[in-house]
Amino acid sequence: MIKVFISHSHQDEKFVNQLLVRLNKDGIMTLANEREVTKGDRITNAINSTDYFIVVLSKRSINSKWVSFELSATILNEISIQDNIILPVLIDDCEIPLSLKDRIFADFRFSFEEGYQKFRGALIPKPTRQFHEMLN
Q1: The model's pTM
Q2: 3-class DSSP assignment, residue 28
Q3: Residue 9 vs residues 55, 64, 80, 83: alpha-carbon distances, Å
Q4: Residues in contact with 124: Cβ distance below 8 Å, sequence separation at least 6, in sequence order
Q5: Domain assignment of residue 95, given as a range
Q6: InterPro entries from the entry (predicted)?
Q7: Which CATH number characterizes residue 44's domain?
Q8: Given this model, what pLDDT does residue 81 score?
Q9: In what order do the strands lie in the sheet with 106-107?
Q10: What is the pLDDT of residues 7-65, one digit of tens each?
């Protein structure tokens, strides 16, 4: 089963809830906020236990300290495991962070359905990071 972490501004909850419903319907396990992180887990542990890190890009999220922290932690993790796990999702016109400018992103600005179809194709099953780390 694919497991994803969704980093976002709480001001984008409406979009995130729609995405959560769709991902769960497709059998994808999601973590999207601190309430879903089990007690005692740190946010970085939760991120590291998932297959993909989805960052919702909006005018609100690019100014969020928590989103920046989560993205920075995940970029460092990508470097250490040598695997692309960050999937940017664009929901409105905003400045793309420099660290994400060279990545392909899912564009949900005009249509949730079209954005989701392209985005869903990027979510392919892969070994969990713990399994990957055991192999190295």
Answers
A1: 0.83
A2: coil
A3: 10, 6, 26, 25
A4: 2
A5: 3-135
A6: TIR_dom (IPR000157), Toll_tir_struct_dom_sf (IPR035897)
A7: 3.40.50.10140
A8: 76
A9: 29-31, 3-7, 52-57, 86-90, 106-107
A10: 999 999 999 999 999 999 999 999 876 555 544 456 777 777 888 999 999 999 999 99
